[in-house]
């Protein structure tokens, strides 16, 4: 048995980068940036009005009301490109360039246009620079505004668009093949006969792998037939970057996953982790393809996928954040680890009125209790042999959402 942290290190060491591809900006949400994003212009690109109103010289409106001659109009997209002189004002809109000669903008609410006279009365004085965002005040051309390895969220899209990234270099998506083992399994569309259950692991792994940026191919159910397992695995390895199986890695008479891996020439890096749930997790390589043999129990699948396979998927994409985000929480109940394994206990994490993050361990019936797990949004980490009391602080991982 190896510690969880060691297993994660081994996964990282064995994972290589997939490289990048150029993708239209409309399709990059959730992808990992494959290049630094550089500003190709100042931001704002010109002195920009922040209010609708009048561009003026502050000195002209020190005593109010002050009457100024309206000499032009500067609209967003159609500026007034002349020199504004003393005693003059230019009607201006939010987002429009401030004319030369003006040093401030008075908002329209504090002005009154005199009918037909081409004159405006400024009702309150302004300070120099008022309601103007100076050219390059936000960003200077040439600055790095986003970095390779960041996940592109919706908040980052405006930055990509504003600096002309119609096409964006992003990490290629890892191709994952998932394969459930177990002669008791039938697909979700079927009614289980005697002694059968529906496969859920393939769909769970597919969901989490997609959240980690992968494309996923679900392989047909192959039972516990070693030859059939091998045949499907070998075919899938031709097409994918990573193979993830579930089940068949324990000590049962029909646990053939490792046999199939070995007969396909796998190099196995670990096959037992000091982890609960998820002890019999297998990690190896066949050729240069990564293989994960996850345990069969649905909660073990969720935990081991997110600790190990997800880390590999993030690393393949050169993501800056490769492991689940960690938060410190206050425990709502006593919790206990198994004596020789770190426990990752499914929990509901929620923020209290006072700002503390509370971790409520789920009442659960063990690693097969996927119905309780459906409400989990985090995992409480309890080190091997340890225990925490209600009110203690404990580290938790946030599950992907
Ligand atoms: P195993 O490690 O193959 O003995 O599986 C452990 C437990 O997980 C058994 O109760 C299996 O029936 C269950 N199990 C295995 N694979 C799946 C699956 N794909 N979907 C749901 N349950 C599964
Ligand atoms: Mg099985």
State the helix count: 7
Helix content: 10-25%
What is the tally of beta strands?
28
Percent of residues in β-strands:
25-35%
From the alpha-carbon coordinates, what is the Rg to the nearest angstrom? 31 Å
The dominant shape is elongated
**Major sheet: order of its strands?**
7-4-6-5-9-8
Classify the secondary structure makeup into a structural class: alpha/beta
Bound molecules: adenosine monophosphate, magnesium ion
Task: Report the major sheet.
Answer: 6 strands, mixed
Mean pLDDT: 97
N-to-C CA distance = 30 Å
**Which consecutive residue ranges, at least 5 long each, have pLDDT under 50?**
none
Please give a structural write-up.
This protein has 401 residues and is α/β, with parallel strands linked by helices. The chain is 19% helix and 30% strand. The protein is built from seven helices and 28 strands. The chain has helices spanning 4-14, 154-162, 201-211, 226-239, 257-263, 298-316, 370-373; strands at residues 20-24, 37-38, 48-49, 53-56, 66-74, 88-92, 104-107, 111-114, 119-122, 132-133, 144-146, 167-171, 175-180, 185-186, 197-198, 215-218, 242-246, 267-270, 275-276, 282-286, 289-294, 326-331, 335-336, 342-351, 357-361, 378-382, 387-388, 393-398. Strands 7-4-6-5-9-8 form a six-stranded mixed beta sheet, with no helix packed on it. α1 (4-14) crosses α6, α3 (201-211) packs parallel to α6 and α4 (226-239) crosses α5 (257-263). The radius of gyration is 31 Å and the shape is elongated. The mean pLDDT is 97. Bound molecules: adenosine monophosphate and magnesium ion. Residues 180, 182, 184-185, 197, 199-202, 246-250, 252, 295-298 line the site of adenosine monophosphate.
């Amino acid at each position: 048995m190896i510690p969880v942290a060691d297993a994660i290190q081994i996964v990282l060491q064995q994972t290589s980068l997939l490289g990048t591809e150029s993708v239209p900006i409309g399709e990059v949400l959730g992808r990992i940036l494959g290049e630094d994003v550089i500003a190709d212009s100042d931001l704002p690109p010109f002195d920009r009005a922040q209010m609708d109103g009048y561009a003026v010289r502050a000195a002209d409106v020190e005593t109010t009301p002050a009457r100024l001659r309206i000499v032009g109009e500067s609209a967003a997209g159609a500026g007034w490109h002349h020199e504004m002189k003393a005693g003059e004002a230019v009607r201006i809109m939010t987002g429009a360039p401030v004319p030369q000669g003006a040093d401030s903008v008075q908002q329209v609410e504090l002005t009154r246009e005199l009918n037909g006279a081409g004159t405006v009365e400024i009702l309150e004085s302004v300070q120099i620079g008022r309601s103007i965002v100076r050219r390059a005040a936000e960003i200077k051309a040439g600055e790095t505004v986003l970095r390779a390895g960041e996940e592109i969220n919706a908040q980052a899209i405006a930055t990509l668009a504003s600096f002309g990234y119609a096409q964006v270099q992003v990490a290629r998506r890892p191709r994952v093949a998932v394969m459930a083992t177990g002669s008791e399994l039938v697909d979700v569309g079927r009614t289980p006969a005697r002694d059968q259950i529906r496969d859920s692991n393939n769909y769970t792994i597919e969901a989490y792998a997609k959240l980690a940026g992968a494309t996923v191919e679900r392989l047909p159910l192959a039972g516990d037939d070693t030859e059939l397992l091998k045949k499907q695995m070998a075919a899938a390895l031709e097409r994918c970057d990573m193979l993830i199986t579930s089940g068949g890695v324990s000590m049962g008479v029909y646990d053939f996953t490792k046999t199939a891996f070995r007969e396909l020439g796998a190099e196995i890096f670990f096959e037992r982790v000091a982890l609960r749930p998820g002890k019999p997790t297998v990690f190896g390589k066949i050729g240069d393809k990564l293989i994960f043999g996850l345990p069969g129990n649905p909660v073990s699948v969720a935990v081991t996928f997110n600790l190990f396979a997800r880390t590999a998927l993030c690393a393949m994409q050169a993501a800056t954040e490769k492991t689940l985000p960690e938060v410190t929480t206050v425990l709502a109940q006593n919790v206990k680890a198994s004596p020789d394994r770190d426990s990752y206990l499914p929990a509901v994490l929620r923020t209290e009125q006072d700002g503390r993050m509370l971790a409520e361990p789920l009442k659960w019936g063990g690693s097969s209790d996927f119905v309780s797990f459906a409400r989990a949004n985090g995992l409480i980490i309890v080190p091997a042999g340890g225990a925490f009391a209600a009110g203690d602080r404990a580290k938790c991982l946030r599950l992907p959402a």
